[in-house]
Design brief:
This protein is of the alpha+beta class and about 270 residues long. The chain has two domains: about 120 residues; about 140 residues, Alpha-Beta Plaits. It contains ten helices and nine strands. The strands form two sheets. Strands 1, 2, 3, 4 and 5 form a five-stranded antiparallel β-sheet that branches. A four-stranded antiparallel β-sheet has the order 7-8-6-9. It is elongated, with a radius of gyration of 25 Å. It starts with a strand and ends in a 9-residue tail after the last strand. The relative contact order is 0.15.
Length: about 270
C-alpha cells in the first residue's frame, strides 16, 4: 500500500528555489516536510504511512477524537503560519490528502492559471482579521437615553391615560432591544466599510460565541482583510482610532495578523 501525501500549501517555485524549506516535522511527528515542484508551482507536503494512518482511520479520528483533532489542527495551523512568513503561499485546509504524487501533480496542472493569478494577488499582501466586541448592557443604556425613536415612543406614552401607559411601557424594552441591534449593525458596517478603504479586499465572517472567544462581551462583527504590506500600519492606526473613539460606549476591537491567506485564495 502506497503512502499518502499531506498537502500544507502551494508556493511559487521561484521562491522555493531562492529559499530552501527548513527542517520541519510533519503531520505524523516522524517524517519531515519536503517540496514537489510542478513547473512554476511547488507543493509543500509530508508523507503519511497509509498502513498506520489510513484515510478511514483519519476520518474517524477527526469525527471522534477531539484531543487528537486539536493537536493535529494546531500542528497544521502553526506549520502553515511558519511557512507563510517565508513564502507567498496558497494555504490548504486541514487534512488535505492525496493518494499519490501523480494525483497531486494533475490537480496542480489543471489549476495552473488560477494559481498564477492567486500568487500575483497575494504577493506583497497580508491577511488581517478584525473582531469587534460589544458590551450590550452598556450600549443598551446609551441607546435608551439617546435614541430618537425611543424618546418619541416615551413621549407618545406620556400622553396616554394612566391605564394604557402601564401596558405600553412594556413595549419600550422591546423597542430598545431592536434599536440596540440596529445601532450595533450600523456601527459595525460603518467601521467595516472604512477599514475596507485601507485594504485591497475585505469580507465578513461568522461571529463566534462566548464559548469560543472566552470573553464576557458578545462578538458583534468578524471580518478579514487583504492589505498591502506597506499599508498595514495605516490600517492598524484606523483600528486604534476606533478603539479610542468607541471604547466609552462599550465597544472593543481586536486586530490580529498577518495570517495565511485562507480567505483570499482557494485551491481544490
Amino acid at each position: 500500500m502506497s503512502n499518502l501525501l499531506y498537502l500544507y500549501g502551494l508556493i511559487p517555485t521561484k521562491e522555493a528555489n531562492d529559499q530552501p524549506l527548513p527542517s520541519i516535522t510533519g503531520f505524523d511527528g516522524e517524517n519531515e516536510l519536503y517540496t514537489i515542484s510542478v513547473g512554476d508551482v511547488t507543493a509543500i507536503v509530508c508523507t503519511i504511512n497509509s498502513e498506520a494512518h489510513s484515510e478511514e482511520e483519519l476520518k474517524d479520528k477527526i469525527e471522534n477524537d477531539m484531543e487528537w483533532l486539536q493537536e493535529k489542527a494546531f500542528h497544521h495551523h502553526e506549520t502553515v503560519l511558519m511557512v507563510s512568513k517565508m513564502y507567498t503561499i496558497v494555504p490548504l485546509k486541514f487534512c488535505t490528502l492525496y493518494k499519490n504524487e501523480d494525483s497531486l501533480k494533475r490537480t496542480i496542472e489543471s489549476n495552473r492559471i488560477k494559481l498564477d493569478s492567486t500568487f500575483s494577488k497575494l504577493k506583497g499582501n497580508e491577511e488581517w482579521n478584525v473582531k469587534i466586541f460589544c458590551n450590550d448592557k452598556e450600549l443598551r443604556g446609551k441607546v435608551s437615553e439617546s435614541n430618537p425613536a425611543i424618546e418619541e415612543k416615551r413621549q407618545e406614552i406620556s400622553e396616554l391615560p394612566p391605564g394604557r401607559q402601564f401596558f405600553e411601557k412594556k413595549k419600550i424594552d422591546q423597542l430598545i432591544d431592536q434599536e440596540l441591534e440596529n445601532e450595533k449593525n450600523r456601527i459595525c458596517e460603518e467601521v467595516h466599510e472604512k477599514l475596507k478603504e485601507k485594504a485591497l479586499e475585505g469580507s465578513v465572517k461568522k461571529n463566534w460565541g462566548k464559548d469560543v472567544t472566552g470573553r464576557q462581551e458578545n462578538m458583534a462583527w468578524n471580518s478579514v482583510f487583504l492589505i498591502a504590506e506597506d499599508k498595514v500600519d495605516d490600517f492598524i492606526g484606523e483600528v486604534d482610532r476606533y478603539k479610542e473613539e468607541l471604547e466609552k460606549s462599550g465597544w472593543s476591537f481586536e486586530a490580529s495578523g498577518p495570517w495565511p491567506s485562507y480567505h483570499f485564495s482557494s485551491f481544490s
